[in-house]
Amino acid sequence: MERKAFLRTLGAGAAFALTFPSIQGCSKDGNGGENPVPEGVDFTIDLNSAEGANLQNNGDFILKNDVVVVKNLEGNFVAASQICSHQQTDQVRFIAENGGFFRCFTHGSEFDQNGTPLNTITSNPLKIFNTELNGNILRVFD
Ligand code: FES
Q: What residues does the Rieske domain cover (predicted)?
């Protein structure tokens, strides 16, 4: 009788030990790579700073606060979420080809500079932020 009780206890404990990590595993898998799309974005970049030096040439871009800040091929500043609208990985980058567009390197979603999807991987638009240039200070904001 005592042995049965012991085995029952062990069984429940073992079941718990086996179940709990697998729940954690599923949760981790389900959220793996998912990041919130940046909200309340409002920052500046001094174009004369070391950071700004990386935005001197048309086609240059930098990553800051989960935003891809771009000097496009026409020399205008545009900014998009680095967090993809497909499955929220942070793999969106600017591609300085074919007029300039955004690509997420996770599954290959592409977006124009207005955030409109260019292929069928997702129909969700990419979040685009406002930019404003005052002298050498570039402001990026929601
Ligand atoms: S998460 Fe970007 S294309 Fe799938």
A: 47-140
Distance set, CA 59 to CA 14, 32, 85, 126, 142 (Å): 57, 31, 22, 19, 22
Mutate to test the pocket of ligand 1, among 104, 123, 127 (most ligand atoms within 8 A of CB): 104
Of 10-14, 92-96, 111-115, the one with minimum mean pLDDT is: 10-14
Q: What is the pLDDT of residues 34-89, one digit of tens each?
A: 799 999 999 999 999 999 999 999 999 999 999 999 999 999 999 999 999 999 99
The yes or no reply on domain 42-141 and CATH 2.102.10.10 is yes
Residues with CB under 6 A from ligand 1: 84, 86-87, 89, 91, 104, 106-109, 121
